[in-house]
Design a protein that fits this description.
single chain, mainly alpha, 4 helices
């Protein structure tokens, strides 16, 4: 299936808020994974990437709902997987 076909299918099955929520979680997982890889390998670009992914996750989480519930959930989850003060 092409990227365009996948996008059309997703748009036919999900609301924009659903897409924003799912995207927030994907970026959150990337942020934590990049942090873990940086911690294991010490590659500076992974540190930078982790911070970038953190910001992306929160950006999408903001648009997932008006209550801030998604932002809190995503942020709390990420903070469970990194040392205090990293993000």
């Amino acid at each position: 299936m092409s990227l365009l076909e996948e996008a059309r299918l997703e748009l036919s099955q999900k609301t924009l808020k659903d897409i924003e929520r799912d995207t927030a979680w994907k970026w959150a997982a990337r942020a934590v994974a990049a942090f873990q890889l940086w911690n294991e390998k010490g590659a500076p670009e992974l540190y930078r990437d982790s911070l970038t992914y953190w910001g992306e996750s929160l950006e999408h989480a903001v648009f997932a709902d008006e209550t801030g519930e998604t932002v809190r959930a995503v942020r709390n989850w990420m903070l469970q997987h990194v040392p205090p003060g990293f993000f």
